[in-house]
Amino acid sequence: MTKSQKHRETRLVEIENEFRTLLLSCLRECAQGRWGLFGQNDHLDPEGRYWSWPEAKRLKDLAQEIKSIRLEFGQNNENCDRFLYLCSLRGSNVSGEPKLAAEFLNGIDQN
Fold first, then answer.
1. CA 64, CA 3: separation in Å to the nearest integer?
2. Is the pTM of this model over 0.85?
3. Any idea what the Cα angle at residue 36 is, between residues 87 and 78, rounded to 5°?
């Protein structure tokens, strides 16, 4: 393993720990009724002036970074992949963010 790979692996462990902690916190808050975690209504406030949620933005950035690093190693992170999938859902038949968050949280708690 090269020095660069060791550094990437160390970075991956750090951001995955931060991601998991932040994910659980944001999912709990969203499940209690706060919107904006999965971006279903981003089209209503594209600049984030009214429904800004910095932690949700940080979570999305971490998820993208984790996915990128994991792809280099040929691996995946289930929670990260599920989070990014839920962020991609749009449409009138998609459950609301609080319901999606509660289901996601229940799935994590069962693991």
1. 23
2. yes
3. 35
